[in-house]
Amino acid sequence: GDIAVFARSEDVDMDMGRFMREALRPMNGRGGGRPNFAQGGAPGEIDIASVAALAAGGGR
């Protein structure tokens, strides 16, 4: 499977732990972390285009 690590600077208002869980859920992945840093994985390939689209929409 693939792994992912997300981080943000202090001036970005997005919870990385929540974003990680939402981003990996459609790929049967799991993850979590703190508001500024998160990590997770999926049993198969992580669709980075889907993750980027979710991020562009503000995480929701």
Measured by DSSP, the beta-strand proportion falls in 25-35%
Strand tally:
3
Shape estimate: globular
Low-confidence stretches: none
Overall mean pLDDT stands at: 94
- Placed side by side, the strands forming the largest sheet appear as 1-3-2
Write the H/E string, N to C: EHEEH
Count of the separate structural domains: 1
> How many strands, what sense, and barrel or not for the largest sheet?
3 strands, antiparallel
Structural class of the helices, strands and pairings? alpha+beta
Helix content: 25-40%
Describe what this molecule looks like in 3D:
Helix content is 30%, strand content 28%. The protein is of the alpha+beta class and 60 residues long. It has one domain. Strands 1-3-2 form a three-stranded antiparallel β-sheet, covered by helices on one side. Strand 2 and strand 3 form a beta hairpin. The radius of gyration is 10 Å and the shape is globular. The chain starts with a strand and ends with a helix.
Helix/strand layout:
Layout: E1 2-7, H1 16-24, E2 30-34, E3 37-42, H2 48-56
Structure characteristics:
60 residues, alpha+beta, 2 helices
Describe the structure concisely.
The protein has 60 residues and is an alpha+beta fold.
